[in-house]
């Protein structure tokens, strides 16, 4: 006998369970109206709660939906709908194929400090956006941090969030949360300020790099006491994260570092090259050099700049990769490995010419003031860091980056070979597999460096360095999850075909 799938609210067809806890479960569902996958959170209060407590649970669930709905940020899970059915509250959210930071720590052990710093920067961006909207999360912990298959880092579960001006928040809610990740002031008097969420972020980052929380004890009472009176357990492998962990985990909120200093210290930690530790079980989630090759060799820009830059952080999907602030030696041309032989030229499916392909439906002809034109899918977001212009698909996380230089180098293939040898040798691409480094027939001269590596899932990158004239060259960087590569490749081909220098 076939059991018909359950449809709730005449719209959402429930599939498999994504997670389950004491207050309900989360389903993977299909939105039958819009034809997309969503995550549906079903709130099921425990049977032993009295009726008044049931009401509080429902109120808290509605508060979560209201809190998250106020936010529109790539590092915050979006809420699409909320309704009541079968006596339960249901919250419809963005479905993000992912695993939690807690699962990554459990499965892979402590993460490398640089990767933890990168994650911290993305969660920090989510907290900054939420507090600017008047929302305090109040339950920042590894289990509420998603590491998306597309490279995104997303803060989720605003179930006990406090909203400025919302009279629903009462004293009964004050100690709701996870004791190991609750700040001393929250335990003491229920304070829910930015500093409290930053303390919880510090405890989460400590857990990620050490493999256990800074106040892990045998019982809840012991944990509560330790958070209130003890110093954090000494960190044994924080590496460059040591200053930010010390600054965030200070008990006195007045002495705790704020958001700007936290960002500065995390950026510094994210710029430190990884140290190989043979035999150590680590998460293979660090990775791509966000490299838009400046003219096949002048430089490989690596995502974030140094502390002195005034540029804003890169967009979320790029920022969750593993940027490294380049040293002078990293920026200088790497020697061509003597063991390599020149690659034969391969023709791409498109070539530069005077005629651009017709503009398809759902695309726009974008002209950037920095000096280029190309077709971009509608709905993709644009951001800029320094000279690099990023476009990002908010649904899949696929990312396009464009950079340029007026000092081209003559041999794109040789330069990519040198860069690959140097970067891979430094351990910057866990699970690196080179697909090709080959010249392509595109404008005056060009070469592709295509490879895959291990992020939270397998990632697939194509870096194209292209010389368009004696004094102008561009880098075209494309990253998506390996599972989406074939489906996304036609978009990249169209971008290549539509790309034009625009230096007039």
From TrEMBL:
Protein name, per record: non-specific serine/threonine protein kinase
Domain Protein kinase: start-end pairs: 12-266
Annotated binding of ATP, by residue: 41
InterPro entries named among the record's database cross-references: Kinase-like_dom_sf, Prot_kinase_dom, Protein_kinase_ATP_BS, Ser/Thr_kinase_AS
PROSITE patterns reported in the protein's UniProt record: PROTEIN_KINASE_ATP, PROTEIN_KINASE_DOM, PROTEIN_KINASE_ST
Broadest EC class assigned to this enzyme: transferase
Organism: Actinoplanes friuliensis DSM 7358
CDD domains (alphabetical): STKc_PknB_like (cd14014)
EC numbers for this chain: 2.7.11.1
């Amino acid at each position: 006998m076939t059991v018909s799938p359950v449809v709730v609210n005449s719209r959402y067809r429930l599939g498999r369970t994504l997670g389950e806890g004491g207050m309900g479960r989360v389903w993977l569902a299909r939105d039958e109206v819009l034809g997309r996958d969503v995550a549906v959170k079903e709130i099921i209060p425990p049977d032993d709660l009295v009726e008044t407590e049931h009401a509080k649970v429902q109120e808290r669930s509605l508060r979560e939906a209201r809190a998250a709905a106020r936010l529109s940020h790539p590092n915050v899970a979006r809420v699409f709908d909320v309704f009541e059915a079968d006596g339960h509250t249901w919250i419809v959210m963005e479905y993000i194929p992912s695993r939690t930071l807690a699962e990554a720590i459990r499965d892979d052990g402590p993460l490398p400090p640089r990767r933890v710093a990168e994650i911290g920067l993305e969660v920090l961006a989510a907290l900054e956006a939420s507090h600017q909207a008047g929302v305090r999360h109040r339950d920042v912990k590894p289990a509420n941090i998603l590491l998306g298959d597309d490279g995104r880092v997303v803060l989720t579960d605003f179930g006990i969030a406090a909203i400025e001006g919302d009279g629903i928040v009462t004293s009964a809610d004050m100690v709701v949360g996870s004791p190991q990740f609750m700040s001393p002031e929250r335990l003491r008097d229920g304070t829910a300020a930015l500093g409290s969420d930053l303390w919880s972020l510090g405890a989460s980052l400590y857990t990620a790099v050490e493999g256990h929380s800074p106040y892990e004890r045998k019982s809840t009472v012991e944990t509560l006491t330790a958070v209130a009176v003890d110093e954090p357990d000494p960190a044994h492998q924080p590496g460059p994260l040591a200053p930010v962990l010390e600054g965030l985990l200070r008990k006195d909120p007045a002495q705790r570092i704020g958001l700007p200093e936290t960002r500065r210290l995390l950026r510094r930690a994210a710029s430190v090259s990884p140290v190989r530790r043979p035999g150590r079980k680590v998460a293979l989630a660090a990775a791509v050099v966000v490299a838009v090759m400046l003219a096949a060799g002048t430089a490989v820009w690596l995502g974030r700049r140094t502390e002195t830059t005034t540029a804003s952080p890169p967009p979320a999907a790029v920022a969750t990769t593993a940027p490294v602030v380049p040293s002078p030696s990293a920026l200088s041309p790497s020697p061509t490995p003597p063991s390599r032989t020149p690659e034969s030229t391969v023709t791409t499916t498109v070539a530069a010419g005077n005629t651009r392909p017709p503009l398809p439906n759902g695309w726009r002809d974008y002209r950037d003031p920095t000096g280029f034109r190309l077709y971009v899918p509608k709905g993709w977001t644009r951001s800029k860091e320094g000279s690099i212009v990023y476009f990002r698909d908010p649904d899949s996380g696929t990312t396009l980056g464009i950079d340029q230089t007026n000092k081209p180098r003559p041999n794109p293939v040789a330069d990519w070979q040198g860069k690959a040898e140097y970067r891979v040798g430094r351990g910057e691409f866990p699970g690196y597999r080179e697909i090709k480094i080959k010249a392509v027939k595109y404008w005056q001269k060009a070469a592709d460096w295509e490879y895959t590596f291990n992020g939270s899932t397998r990632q697939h990158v194509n870096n194209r360095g292209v010389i368009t004239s004696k004094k102008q060259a561009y880098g075209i960087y494309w990253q998506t999850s390996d599972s989406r590569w074939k489906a996304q490749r036609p978009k990249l081909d169209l971008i290549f075909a539509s790309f034009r220098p625009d230096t007039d």
